[in-house]
Design goal:
The structure holds 2 protein chains of 2 kinds. By secondary structure, chain A is of the alpha/beta class. Chain A has 9 helices and 9 strands. Classes of the chains: A alpha/beta, B alpha+beta.
Protein backbone atom coordinates (compact mmCIF):
# COMPACT_ATOMS: atom_id res chain seq x y z
CA UNK A 1 0.00 0.00 0.00
CA UNK A 2 1.03 3.57 -0.35
CA UNK A 3 0.74 4.68 3.25
CA UNK A 4 4.39 4.23 4.02
CA UNK A 5 7.08 6.82 4.34
CA UNK A 6 10.07 5.02 2.92
CA UNK A 7 13.40 6.74 3.05
CA UNK A 8 13.88 5.84 -0.58
CA UNK A 9 10.86 7.90 -1.50
CA UNK A 10 11.48 11.37 -0.09
CA UNK A 11 9.17 14.25 -0.83
CA UNK A 12 10.17 16.48 -3.71
CA UNK A 13 12.61 19.11 -2.43
CA UNK A 14 10.10 21.91 -2.83
CA UNK A 15 7.33 20.26 -0.80
CA UNK A 16 6.49 22.11 2.36
CA UNK A 17 3.97 21.56 5.14
CA UNK A 18 2.74 23.67 7.99
CA UNK A 19 4.56 23.67 11.30
CA UNK A 20 2.38 25.81 13.46
CA UNK A 21 2.12 29.00 11.43
CA UNK A 22 5.54 28.46 9.87
CA UNK A 23 6.15 26.44 6.75
CA UNK A 24 8.88 23.83 6.85
CA UNK A 25 10.22 21.19 4.47
CA UNK A 26 7.89 18.20 4.60
CA UNK A 27 10.65 15.80 5.61
CA UNK A 28 11.68 17.99 8.55
CA UNK A 29 8.31 18.34 10.24
CA UNK A 30 8.23 15.10 12.21
CA UNK A 31 11.71 15.76 13.57
CA UNK A 32 10.72 19.23 14.71
CA UNK A 33 7.60 17.90 16.41
CA UNK A 34 9.68 15.18 18.09
CA UNK A 35 12.13 17.75 19.44
CA UNK A 36 9.30 19.63 21.06
CA UNK A 37 7.87 16.57 22.80
CA UNK A 38 11.31 15.40 23.91
CA UNK A 39 11.87 18.80 25.46
CA UNK A 40 8.62 18.82 27.42
CA UNK A 41 8.01 15.09 28.15
CA UNK A 42 8.88 15.34 31.84
CA UNK A 43 6.39 18.11 32.48
CA UNK A 44 3.81 17.31 29.89
CA UNK A 45 1.08 16.23 32.30
CA UNK A 46 1.63 19.22 34.57
CA UNK A 47 1.45 21.56 31.59
CA UNK A 48 -1.80 20.01 30.41
CA UNK A 49 -3.33 20.62 33.81
CA UNK A 50 -2.18 24.22 33.90
CA UNK A 51 -3.14 25.07 30.34
CA UNK A 52 -6.58 23.52 30.44
CA UNK A 53 -7.35 24.19 34.11
CA UNK A 54 -7.68 20.43 34.56
CA UNK A 55 -10.33 20.20 31.83
CA UNK A 56 -8.26 17.76 29.78
CA UNK A 57 -8.89 15.15 32.48
CA UNK A 58 -12.66 15.42 32.04
CA UNK A 59 -12.32 15.44 28.25
CA UNK A 60 -10.29 12.23 28.35
CA UNK A 61 -12.85 10.64 30.67
CA UNK A 62 -15.42 11.45 27.99
CA UNK A 63 -13.40 9.60 25.34
CA UNK A 64 -13.35 6.39 27.34
CA UNK A 65 -16.97 6.94 28.32
CA UNK A 66 -17.93 7.08 24.65
CA UNK A 67 -15.80 4.03 23.89
CA UNK A 68 -17.52 2.11 26.72
CA UNK A 69 -15.08 -0.82 26.87
CA UNK A 70 -16.53 -4.14 28.10
CA UNK A 71 -16.45 -4.57 31.86
CA UNK A 72 -16.58 -8.34 31.59
CA UNK A 73 -13.62 -10.66 31.04
CA UNK A 74 -14.26 -10.48 27.29
CA UNK A 75 -11.03 -9.86 25.38
CA UNK A 76 -10.87 -6.32 24.02
CA UNK A 77 -7.73 -4.83 22.51
CA UNK A 78 -7.04 -1.12 22.31
CA UNK A 79 -4.35 0.55 20.25
CA UNK A 80 -3.59 3.95 21.82
CA UNK A 81 -1.68 5.87 19.15
CA UNK A 82 0.38 8.90 20.11
CA UNK A 83 -0.53 7.67 23.57
CA UNK A 84 2.56 9.26 25.13
CA UNK A 85 2.22 9.48 28.85
CA UNK A 86 -0.68 7.02 28.91
CA UNK A 87 -3.66 9.19 29.89
CA UNK A 88 -6.19 7.36 27.72
CA UNK A 89 -4.66 3.92 28.27
CA UNK A 90 -4.83 4.29 32.03
CA UNK A 91 -8.48 5.36 31.94
CA UNK A 92 -9.34 2.55 29.53
CA UNK A 93 -7.77 -0.09 31.78
CA UNK A 94 -9.43 1.27 34.91
CA UNK A 95 -12.88 1.43 33.34
CA UNK A 96 -12.66 -1.77 31.31
CA UNK A 97 -12.82 -5.33 32.61
CA UNK A 98 -9.94 -7.76 33.04
CA UNK A 99 -10.12 -8.74 29.36
CA UNK A 100 -9.10 -5.26 28.29
CA UNK A 101 -5.51 -4.86 27.13
CA UNK A 102 -3.78 -1.92 25.49
CA UNK A 103 -0.87 -1.20 23.24
CA UNK A 104 0.65 2.19 24.00
CA UNK A 105 2.23 3.51 20.83
CA UNK A 106 4.13 6.75 20.30
CA UNK A 107 6.83 8.06 18.00
CA UNK A 108 8.66 9.72 20.85
CA UNK A 109 10.73 7.54 23.22
CA UNK A 110 10.77 10.10 26.03
CA UNK A 111 6.99 10.38 26.06
CA UNK A 112 6.59 6.60 25.97
CA UNK A 113 9.13 6.12 28.77
CA UNK A 114 7.09 8.54 30.88
CA UNK A 115 3.98 6.47 30.07
CA UNK A 116 5.63 3.18 30.98
CA UNK A 117 6.82 4.54 34.31
CA UNK A 118 3.40 5.94 35.12
CA UNK A 119 1.48 2.75 34.19
CA UNK A 120 3.94 0.59 36.12
CA UNK A 121 3.39 2.85 39.12
CA UNK A 122 -0.36 2.39 38.75
CA UNK A 123 0.07 -1.40 38.67
CA UNK A 124 -1.35 -1.58 35.14
CA UNK A 125 1.78 -2.33 33.11
CA UNK A 126 0.95 -6.05 32.94
CA UNK A 127 -1.93 -5.27 30.60
CA UNK A 128 0.02 -2.88 28.39
CA UNK A 129 2.41 -3.46 25.51
CA UNK A 130 4.72 -0.65 24.41
CA UNK A 131 6.04 0.15 20.94
CA UNK A 132 7.59 3.14 19.20
CA UNK A 133 6.54 4.00 15.67
CA UNK A 134 4.79 6.34 13.27
CA UNK A 135 1.00 6.61 13.08
CA UNK A 136 1.35 6.80 9.28
CA UNK A 137 2.93 3.32 9.06
CA UNK A 138 1.67 1.09 11.86
CA UNK A 139 3.64 -2.09 12.65
CA UNK A 140 0.51 -4.17 13.26
CA UNK A 141 -1.35 -6.68 11.09
CA UNK A 142 -4.66 -5.92 9.43
CA UNK A 143 -7.76 -6.24 11.62
CA UNK A 144 -5.93 -6.76 14.89
CA UNK A 145 -7.58 -4.30 17.31
CA UNK A 146 -11.07 -3.71 18.69
CA UNK A 147 -10.49 0.00 19.21
CA UNK A 148 -8.07 2.73 18.16
CA UNK A 149 -7.67 5.96 20.11
CA UNK A 150 -5.54 8.98 19.39
CA UNK A 151 -5.59 11.76 21.99
CA UNK A 152 -4.26 15.18 21.06
CA UNK A 153 -1.94 13.45 18.63
CA UNK A 154 -3.34 13.51 15.14
CA UNK A 155 -2.64 17.23 14.82
CA UNK A 156 1.06 16.40 15.02
CA UNK A 157 0.98 13.80 12.26
CA UNK A 158 2.36 15.07 8.93
CA UNK A 159 -0.10 13.18 6.69
CA UNK A 160 -3.41 12.85 8.52
CA UNK A 161 -5.04 10.89 5.68
CA UNK A 162 -2.35 8.19 5.95
CA UNK A 163 -2.81 7.92 9.70
CA UNK A 164 -6.58 7.51 9.21
CA UNK A 165 -6.23 4.79 6.60
CA UNK A 166 -3.75 2.95 8.82
CA UNK A 167 -6.22 3.20 11.70
CA UNK A 168 -8.87 1.66 9.46
CA UNK A 169 -6.52 -1.11 8.34
CA UNK A 170 -5.59 -2.34 11.83
CA UNK A 171 -9.14 -2.26 13.20
CA UNK A 172 -11.26 -5.39 13.15
CA UNK A 173 -14.63 -5.30 11.44
CA UNK A 174 -16.86 -3.73 14.07
CA UNK A 175 -13.86 -1.87 15.48
CA UNK A 176 -14.08 1.66 16.78
CA UNK A 177 -12.00 4.75 15.98
CA UNK A 178 -11.98 7.58 18.51
CA UNK A 179 -9.97 10.76 18.29
CA UNK A 180 -9.88 13.66 20.70
CA UNK A 181 -8.31 16.85 19.45
CA UNK A 182 -8.45 20.55 19.97
CA UNK A 183 -11.03 21.93 17.62
CA UNK A 184 -12.93 25.09 16.75
CA UNK A 185 -14.61 26.94 19.58
CA UNK A 186 -18.08 27.89 18.36
CA UNK A 187 -19.37 29.86 21.34
CA UNK A 188 -19.31 33.68 21.08
CA UNK A 189 -17.27 35.38 23.80
CA UNK A 190 -15.78 32.07 24.93
CA UNK A 191 -13.89 32.08 21.62
CA UNK A 192 -12.37 35.48 22.51
CA UNK A 193 -11.30 34.30 25.93
CA UNK A 194 -9.88 31.18 24.34
CA UNK A 195 -7.89 33.23 21.82
CA UNK A 196 -6.35 35.34 24.54
CA UNK A 197 -5.56 32.26 26.59
CA UNK A 198 -4.03 30.52 23.58
CA UNK A 199 -1.78 33.24 22.27
CA UNK A 200 -0.94 35.18 25.41
CA UNK A 201 -1.21 32.84 28.38
CA UNK A 202 -0.11 29.43 27.11
CA UNK A 203 3.30 30.41 25.69
CA UNK A 204 4.10 32.19 28.97
CA UNK A 205 3.03 29.14 30.98
CA UNK A 206 5.24 27.07 28.72
CA UNK A 207 8.15 29.35 29.41
CA UNK A 208 7.60 29.31 33.17
CA UNK A 209 6.98 25.61 33.70
CA UNK A 210 8.78 23.80 30.90
CA UNK A 211 11.26 26.57 30.06
CA UNK A 212 10.10 26.44 26.48
CA UNK A 213 7.73 29.08 25.10
CA UNK A 214 8.51 28.05 21.53
CA UNK A 215 7.17 24.53 22.05
CA UNK A 216 3.87 25.84 23.35
CA UNK A 217 3.62 28.48 20.64
CA UNK A 218 3.85 25.57 18.17
CA UNK A 219 1.12 23.81 20.10
CA UNK A 220 -1.25 26.77 19.90
CA UNK A 221 -0.55 27.44 16.23
CA UNK A 222 -0.94 23.80 15.24
CA UNK A 223 -4.34 23.78 16.93
CA UNK A 224 -5.49 26.64 14.72
CA UNK A 225 -4.23 24.88 11.61
CA UNK A 226 -6.15 21.68 12.34
CA UNK A 227 -9.34 21.16 10.29
CA UNK A 228 -12.60 22.06 12.00
CA UNK A 229 -15.13 19.52 13.21
CA UNK A 230 -17.14 18.92 10.01
CA UNK A 231 -14.07 18.84 7.80
CA UNK A 232 -12.31 16.31 9.99
CA UNK A 233 -15.44 14.15 10.17
CA UNK A 234 -15.39 14.15 6.36
CA UNK A 235 -11.77 12.97 6.36
CA UNK A 236 -12.69 10.10 8.69
CA UNK A 237 -15.45 9.07 6.31
CA UNK A 238 -13.08 9.33 3.35
CA UNK A 239 -10.71 6.88 5.08
CA UNK A 240 -13.48 4.29 4.96
CA UNK A 241 -15.11 4.68 8.35
CA UNK A 242 -18.86 4.50 8.78
CA UNK A 243 -21.06 6.67 10.96
CA UNK A 244 -18.45 9.40 11.39
CA UNK A 245 -19.68 11.67 14.16
CA UNK A 246 -18.35 14.11 16.70
CA UNK A 247 -19.12 15.63 20.07
CA UNK A 248 -17.96 19.07 21.09
CA UNK A 249 -16.40 19.54 24.51
CA UNK A 250 -16.37 22.90 26.30
CA UNK A 251 -17.98 24.75 23.41
CA UNK A 252 -15.80 23.07 20.80
CA UNK A 253 -12.42 23.92 22.29
CA UNK A 254 -11.92 20.19 21.96
CA UNK A 255 -13.94 17.60 20.06
CA UNK A 256 -14.17 13.82 20.08
CA UNK A 257 -14.58 12.25 16.65
CA UNK A 258 -15.86 8.71 16.26
CA UNK A 259 -16.02 6.24 13.40
CA UNK A 260 -16.66 2.54 12.92
CA UNK A 261 -15.10 -0.02 10.65
CA UNK A 262 -18.18 -1.87 9.48
CA UNK B 1 22.95 0.82 27.03
CA UNK B 2 21.13 -0.02 23.85
CA UNK B 3 24.44 -1.01 22.30
CA UNK B 4 25.16 -3.79 24.77
CA UNK B 5 22.17 -6.10 24.47
CA UNK B 6 24.08 -8.98 26.10
CA UNK B 7 24.00 -7.06 29.37
CA UNK B 8 20.38 -6.00 29.18
CA UNK B 9 18.46 -6.68 32.38
CA UNK B 10 15.71 -9.25 32.02
CA UNK B 11 13.05 -6.67 32.80
CA UNK B 12 14.35 -4.47 29.99
CA UNK B 13 14.18 -7.23 27.43
CA UNK B 14 11.39 -7.00 24.95
CA UNK B 15 8.05 -8.38 26.07
CA UNK B 16 7.34 -11.50 23.98
CA UNK B 17 3.63 -10.59 23.81
CA UNK B 18 4.55 -7.39 22.01
CA UNK B 19 6.94 -9.05 19.60
CA UNK B 20 4.29 -11.54 18.55
CA UNK B 21 1.90 -8.81 17.47
CA UNK B 22 4.35 -6.71 15.44
CA UNK B 23 4.87 -6.68 11.69
CA UNK B 24 7.19 -4.60 9.50
CA UNK B 25 5.66 -1.10 9.22
CA UNK B 26 6.75 -0.85 5.58
CA UNK B 27 5.83 -4.26 4.18
CA UNK B 28 3.39 -5.48 6.90
CA UNK B 29 5.18 -8.85 6.82
CA UNK B 30 6.31 -11.01 9.75
CA UNK B 31 9.49 -10.23 11.66
CA UNK B 32 12.30 -12.43 12.96
CA UNK B 33 13.35 -11.80 16.56
CA UNK B 34 17.11 -11.74 17.13
CA UNK B 35 17.23 -12.04 20.88
CA UNK B 36 21.00 -11.67 21.24
CA UNK B 37 21.15 -8.44 19.28
CA UNK B 38 17.73 -7.26 20.47
CA UNK B 39 16.57 -6.61 16.95
CA UNK B 40 13.49 -7.36 14.88
CA UNK B 41 14.37 -8.29 11.34
CA UNK B 42 12.23 -7.63 8.29
CA UNK B 43 13.50 -9.79 5.50
CA UNK B 44 11.18 -8.12 3.01
CA UNK B 45 12.36 -4.59 3.85
CA UNK B 46 15.96 -5.73 4.49
CA UNK B 47 15.93 -3.85 7.79
CA UNK B 48 16.68 -4.66 11.43
CA UNK B 49 14.57 -2.63 13.83
CA UNK B 50 16.25 -2.00 17.19
CA UNK B 51 14.72 -2.84 20.57
CA UNK B 52 15.86 -0.18 23.02
CA UNK B 53 15.34 -0.53 26.72
CA UNK B 54 12.84 -3.30 25.99
CA UNK B 55 10.74 -1.20 23.61
CA UNK B 56 10.73 -2.04 19.89
CA UNK B 57 11.51 0.99 17.72
CA UNK B 58 9.49 0.38 14.57
CA UNK B 59 10.82 3.32 12.57
CA UNK B 60 12.60 2.64 9.25
CA UNK B 61 14.80 5.68 9.80
CA UNK B 62 16.10 4.13 13.03
CA UNK B 63 16.59 0.65 11.53
CA UNK B 64 19.83 -0.94 10.38
CA UNK B 65 20.05 -1.91 6.72
CA UNK B 66 20.90 -5.58 6.14
CA UNK B 67 23.35 -6.70 3.48
CA UNK B 68 23.13 -9.84 1.34
CA UNK B 69 25.40 -11.85 3.64
CA UNK B 70 23.24 -11.21 6.66
CA UNK B 71 20.09 -12.06 4.78
CA UNK B 72 21.60 -15.33 3.55
CA UNK B 73 22.68 -16.19 7.07
CA UNK B 74 19.13 -15.60 8.28
CA UNK B 75 17.85 -18.02 5.71
CA UNK B 76 19.94 -20.82 7.23
CA UNK B 77 18.79 -20.26 10.77
Amino acid sequence: MSSTSKKSDPPAPGDTVSFGFKTVAEGDRQGLVNDIFSAVAGRYDLMNDLMSGGLHRLWKDDVIGWLAPPRSAQAFRLLDVAGGTGDLTERFLRVGGPGCTATLFDINPEMLAAGRKRLAGAGLAERVAFAIGNAEALPFPDKSFDAYTIGFGIRNVTHIDKALSEAYRVLKTGGRFLCIEFSRCEVPLLDRVYDFHSFEVIPRLGQLTAGNAEAYRYLVESIRKFPKQETFAGMIGAAGFSRAAYRNLTGGIAAIHSGWRL
Amino acid sequence: MADTPAQAEPSRRADPRVLEMLVCPLTKTALIYDEARQELISRAARLAYPIRDGIPVMLPEEARALDDDELRHLGKK
